[in-house]
Amino acid sequence: MSFDDFNFDGTEDVAIRNGNSNHESPFYEVYLNNTSTQRFVLSDELTNLVHSNSGIFKTDQEHKRIVAYQKNGCCWNLTSEYLFVPERGILKVLEFEEDTRDPEKVKTVKREFIDYKWFAKTTIYPRERYFKEEINENTERN
């Protein structure tokens, strides 16, 4: 069980582990605290977000974002950030894709949703430079 304010409304919500997804990641059902009824209500949208990613998402309380992760094997990762919009649900606002399958280079793609448009920036790094920077926390992801 995991407790957090998943929709950033100031009340604690709950995610209950309910087995594993087809990707062998832990599967959670997410319940939002409905203060008017004093009950937890299943959030299909957040539960589906868990199911379609690599396990439970994280919350960034400072920026009021939900952060989800996907991976494919050892060498491809996707981090997605969502805003929780009251009465509407979640809105994806950022993606950071990291592809390390090439033995000589690393490709990153950062996509941001700004003013109702998606903008993308692709960067290719020499592998040794990328991982040296990652250790120093100087990569574009930060």
Strand count, sense and barrel status of the largest sheet are: 6 strands, antiparallel
Distance between the termini: 29 Å
User: What is the number of independent domains?
Assistant: 1
Helical content stands at: 10-25%
Oligomer: single chain
SS content category = mainly beta
> Shape from CA axes?
globular
H and E string? EEEEHEEEEEEH
> How many strands?
10
Strand order of the largest sheet: 5-6-7-8-9-10
| Radius of gyration over C-alpha positions, nearest whole angstrom | 17 Å
Mean pLDDT: 89
Q: How many helices in DSSP terms?
A: 2
Quote the beta fraction. Answer: over 45%
User: Unreliable runs, pLDDT <50, ≥5 residues?
Assistant: none
Q: What can be said about this structure in brief?
A:
By secondary structure, the protein is mostly beta strands. It has helices at 44-51, 127-135; strands at 2-4, 13-20, 26-34, 39-42, 58-60, 65-71, 76-85, 89-99, 105-114, 117-126. It has one domain (2-135).
Features:
single chain, 142 residues, mainly beta, six-stranded antiparallel beta sheet
What does this structure look like?
With 142 residues, the chain is mainly beta. It has one domain (2-135). The chain is built from two helices and ten strands; from the N terminus they run ββββαββββββα. The chain has helices at 44-51, 127-135; strands at 2-4, 13-20, 26-34, 39-42, 58-60, 65-71, 76-85, 89-99, 105-114, 117-126. A six-stranded antiparallel β-sheet has the order 5-6-7-8-9-10. Strands 1-2-3-4 form a four-stranded antiparallel β-sheet, with helices on one face. The longest helix has 9 residues, at 127-135. The radius of gyration is 17 Å and the shape is globular. The two termini are 29 Å apart. The model has no long low-confidence stretch (mean pLDDT 89).
